[in-house]
Amino acid sequence: MLTSVRSLLAATAFAGAVFAATPAMAEEEAPSDFTVSGNVAIVTDYRFRGASLSGGDFAIQGGLSVAHSSGFYVGTWASSLEDTPLYGEMELDLYGGWKGEVASGLTLDAGLTYFVYPSKDSGAGPSAYFEPYAKLSGQLGPVGATLGVAYAWDQDSLGSQDNLYVFTDFSAGIPGTPVSLSAHLGYTDGALAPDYVNGFNNDKTAFDWSIGASATVLGGLTVGVQYIGVEGRSVKNLTNDTVVGTLSYSF
Predict the structure, then answer these.
(1) Residue 186 belongs to a domain with what CATH number?
(2) Is-contact 240 227, C-beta < 8 A?
(3) Largest CA-CA distance found in the chain, in angstroms, rounded
């Protein structure tokens, strides 16, 4: 299964809009209390919680966010997908929340994401859904650690079921080098478990994991590689363990 050309063009157009919007905002001389940031990336496979959403093929991604000095922020992020009637060929995430220090060395990030699929087949049933999230981050010596939870309540697009996702992330830089190491462990319980959502069986639970490394090679240009796996039935280009490469630029 290959990601459609139209899918890549749609996401490329989005990434172009991100670049176009940045200088316009600068020209308007937005108050210094606001910070605008963005990113674009090419990945060899779009993996969401361990499962591929691009059919094991390349995906183009990009995002833009605006944050206020008070800690409140809003943003959007998009990715090309494997073209299917239910999800179409593009995912668009709209999100907003608050991020700030709640105790010495401890940062809270809480908000709401709306997952939208604007190019889906209108006759394929509902696919968009809301998912609140909360993350606590801090340092464990030289290691950055995050513990998070995301919960999607009962919604039509989830078959009138809910979904809980709990995860932890770790990261650490290698002294004297531009290289950072990362590790992730997640647990799904609900309608979005890979085996259940793909119709393999009725198991609504699954662990997913990854380990990786990345390096900033030129300004905001970063290259990275991850080994990603997910519990359950292993299907090539969908839920099999895989290595994903990333080339991204942040601004």
Answers:
(1) 2.40.160.40
(2) no
(3) 55
